[in-house]
Design goal:
InterPro entries: SRCR, SRCR-like_dom_sf. The chain is an alpha+beta fold. Helices cover about 15% and strands about 25% of the residues. Strands 1, 2, 3, 4, 5, 6 and 7 form a seven-stranded mixed β-sheet that branches. A hairpin with a 2-residue loop joins strand 15 and strand 16.
Length: about 375
């Protein structure tokens, strides 16, 4: 019995290693890559996932692994055509994710599936991931002008090297979604509102009767009337408002590089809980804000920042330190937390001082102790 038992102990980690090293996840049959039947690869073989116990936390992990947006649903995998091949295996079942895993393979699951068929295939729906860029996905082909920021204003498209407007005839929310997506902004929050007459277009009216499904990557991919062929006036110019892309700020401090950390999500500013917060997360914030390294503050200075009063958007943030934006770090689903505002992250940053920061954690009743260190040179 002993030799057999020894072989078992040695072989289990090896098989687990190979399974993880060759594991991938994809969504098949949906309208875009962030929706569809869930399929996983194990050792070069693609198979489906049994939906026994499948829930939103599992979908959250799939969305995160694929670089998609928020989890929005747990549909049946049978809704997506073509259906899984009969000879394709159901590879895993009883998936039980906490919602914090970076990959589906890291969740609890059973790989020996005997009692599931393809009628029980799991599905997942995620939002498309908004690309938070400072330039359009298709450069210089669409813009929003005359509004407060690049994500709100009159829609203009570029044709024959000239910018022109879009008539609101036939315009709908799906078309607005495409514009917001193309510009790397957030969700479309308003359509059909007339533009301010002071910001009406002056050039050609290039497009009218635009008909988008909402899945296009570019407004120019949507069916429309012929370019420049319409009976519209600039009183009918289309305006779009998108939510601002992900942003962050420090509030309550003397400069933009000091204060309580807040992030913008769905057009609303909220705080970040300090659970799991450390040097790598600080590094990403410094990088995104274009500030220097964090400075150790006195406890008195920390209290001057005050406590947040709105939403707590992020909790259990985990960064590698290489991310360009805090949103690229792993974290709980937006708005999901077990914190209060006494645990809000706050910091101070400066190019001329070295630092470290110890964050307040009221649940463990630790004492805030942030001491400023000034270089000797």
């Amino acid at each position: 019995l002993y030799p057999v038992f020894s072989v078992f102990l040695l072989s289990w980690p090896i098989s687990h290693f190979f399974a993880e090293s060759s594991s991938r996840t994809r969504l098949v049959g949906g309208h875009h890559r962030c929706e569809g039947r869930v399929e996983v690869e194990r050792n070069g073989q693609w198979g489906t996932v049994c939906d026994d116990g499948w829930g939103m936390k599992d979908v959250e992990v799939v969305c995160r692994e694929l670089g998609c947006g928020a989890a929005t649903g747990t549909p049946s995998g049978t809704l997506y055509k073509p259906l899984a091949e009969k000879d394709q295996k159901v590879l895993i079942q009883a998936v039980n994710c906490s919602g914090m895993e970076s990959k589906l393979i890291h969740c609890e699951q059973e790989e020996d599936v005997f009692d599931c068929s393809h009628n029980e295939d799991a599905g997942a729906m995620c939002e498309k991931q908004m690309l938070h860029l400072s330039f359009p996905i298709v450069p210089e082909t669409v813009r929003l002008v005359g509004g407060p920021g690049r994500c709100k204003g009159r829609v203009e498209v570029k044709h024959q090297e000239q910018w022109g407007t879009v008539c609101k005839a036939g315009w709908n929310l799906s078309a607005a979604k495409v514009v917001c997506w193309q510009l790397g902004c957030g969700r479309a929050t308003l359509t059909q509102r007339c533009c301010n007459k002071d910001t009406q277009g002056q050039g050609p009216i290039w497009l009218s009767k635009v008909s988008c499904s909402g899945q296009e990557e570019s407004l120019q991919d949507c069916p429309s009337a012929l370019w420049g062929k319409n009976n519209c006036t600039h009183d009918e110019d289309t305006c779009v408002e998108c939510e601002d892309p992900f942003d962050l700020r420090l509030v309550g401090g003397d400069t933009r590089c000091s204060g309580r950390l807040e992030v913008l999500h769905k057009g609303e500013w909220g705080s970040v809980c300090d659970d799991g917060w450390g040097e790598k997360e600080e590094k990403v914030v410094c990088k995104q804000l274009g500030c220097g390294e964090s400075i150790l503050l006195s406890a008195k200075a920390r209290r001057n920042f005050g406590l947040g009063a709105g939403r707590i958007w992020l909790d259990d943030v985990h960064c590698s330190g290489k991310e360009q934006s805090l949103e690229q770090c792993r974290h709980r689903f937006w708005g999901h937390h077990n914190c209060n505002h006494k645990e809000d992250v706050a910091t101070d940053k400066n190019n001329n001082k070295s630092h470290t920061i110890q964050l307040l954690n009221m649940r463990t009743k630790s004492i805030l102790k942030i001491i400023e260190l000034t270089p000797l040179y």
